[in-house]
Amino acid sequence: MSRLSLPHHYTGKVRELYEVDHDRMLVVASDRVSVFDVVLPDLIPDKGRVLTALSTFWFEQTAHLAPNHLVSSDPTDLPETAGPDVAGRAMLVRAARPVRLECVARGYLFGSAWSDYQETGTIMGRTLPAGLRQAERLPEPVFTPTTKADEGHDLPLADVDAAALVGDERYEELRDLTLAIYSFGAEVAAAHGLILADTKLEFGEVDGRLVVIDEMMTPDSSRYWSADDHHVGTSPPSFDKQYVRDHYLSIGWDMKPPVPHMPESVIEGTRARYVEAYEQVSGLSFDAWYGDGE
Ligand SMILES: Nc1ncnc2c1ncn2[C@@H]1O[C@H](COP(=O)(O)OP(=O)(O)OP(=O)(O)O)[C@@H](O)[C@H]1O
Ligand SMILES: [Mg+2]
Questions:
Q1: What are 111-140's pLDDT values in tens digits?
Q2: What is the mean pLDDT of the chain?
Q3: What is the mean pLDDT of the segment spanning 280-287?
Q4: Which sign does the torsion angle of CA 124, 126, 132, 138 carry?
Q5: Which residue has its alpha carbon closest to ligand 1 atom 21?
Q6: Which residue has its alpha carbon closest to ligand 1 atom 24?
Q7: Which single residue of 50, 193, 200, 291 has CA 20 to 30 Å from 108?
Q8: Relative to the alpha carbon of 11, which ligand is closest?
Q9: pLDDT score for 152
Q10: What percent of the chain stands above pLDDT 90?
Q11: CA–CA separation, 217 vs 198, rounded Å?
């Protein structure tokens, strides 16, 4: 994807940010995919449009729970200078000052939280009942924020350390909003035969008020399982990047560059999972979403 003629603001692992005017930006989701915080050498066709479609769906659905940065994803609302190529993958948003915390909510014991629990019986000091198994539903969802690292891995935080980063009052606000959005998302997902095991939200400040920024409850930022595939004590197949991660684990890659290319079958399988996630979560057809990926 070539650069737009708008002033460029930031290159993330997946997104490009452009300045539109003093209080609005254009967030363009690319087809890049990162695992273990490394951007892979292959693109997943349509991934950026799926992320934008699903985030748009969730931003609209959760607007009653928390304000968010979305202005519009409709290509006719974008500045003309953005050009036609970004249709479907670009979002016009309110510019925010990002909060230096990644806000994670978990309803199930999996991934890094499962590893931590096996070692300590807690998630960074947060008490849980004894004897829980992998992928088990937690008695209630927990807020497990991490640092927002500029480079490398985000680090898990104990409650006190996370609160010290943003202040007690902000911390409680972030926790309550994150858990409310997660619980709502998990309920909608369940109605469509899916489990939303966990999700990561980012917040920013606009005029001193918190708004959700970046993306919302996509397969990049969340773990979705098919309810039929969920068996406590095992690792359920998921719609998220776990499929790509599993490929790299199976070939014994040491997680250091250079990253080997993915076979065509893994690229195609990943694309299919992203599209399926969007359609199953939203109940909408991806063919009806803006742009044609050209
Ligand atoms: N409305 C907004 N105002 C300001 N910054 C934003 C806004 N929306 C998103 N961002 C920032 O844009 C960047 C998007 O980049 P991208 O999603 O590619 O992720 P990243 O920062 O590389 O890492 P991660 O994998 O943790 O999301 C993030 O740094 C995010 O904080
Ligand atoms: Mg991001």
A1: 999 999 999 999 999 999 999 999 999 999
A2: 95
A3: 98
A4: negative
A5: 12
A6: 13
A7: 50
A8: 1
A9: 79
A10: 89
A11: 9
> What stretch of H or E contains 118?
helix 111-120
Asked if residue 25 lies in contact with residue 39, where contact means CB atoms within 8 angstroms, the answer is no
Report percent pLDDT > 70 for the chain: 99
- In the reported structure, the alpha carbon of residue 212 is separated from the centroid of ligand 1 by a whole-number distance in angstroms of 11
pLDDT for residue 255: 84
Tokens at 203, concatenated: 């917040």
Residue 15 alpha carbon to ligand 1 centre in Å: 7
Dig out the tokens for 118 from the structure. Answer: 């096996």
CA-nearest residue for atom 11, ligand 1, is 214
Q: What distance in angstroms lies between residue 14's CA and the mean position of ligand 2's atoms?
A: 7
If you take atom 13 of ligand 1, which residue's CA is the nearest one?
12
Q: Give the distance (Å) from ligand 2 centre to CA of residue 221.
A: 8
Compute the distance from residue 140 Cα to the ligand 2 centre, in Å.
Answer: 26
* Whether residue 240 has pLDDT greater than 80: no
| Prediction pTM value | 0.96
- Which two tokens mark 84? 């036609």
Q: How far apart are CA 104 and CA 86, in angstroms?
A: 29
Which among 225, 247, 200 is positioned nearest to 40, based on CA atoms?
247
Establish whether the linkage from the previous residue to 139 is cis, with ω within 30° of 0.
no
Q: Closest residue (by CA) to atom 20 of ligand 1? A: 12
At 220 the three-state DSSP class reads coil
Summarize pLDDT for 22-71 with one digit per residue, the tens: 999 999 999 999 988 889 999 999 999 999 999 999 999 999 999 999 99
Ligand 1 pocket (Cβ < 6 Å) reads 10, 12-15, 17, 25, 27, 69, 93-96, 98, 202, 204, 213-214
Q: CB 294: neighbour CB atoms within 10 A?
A: 6
Pairing of strands 137-143, 194-206: unpaired
Whether the pLDDT of residue 293 is over 50: the answer is no
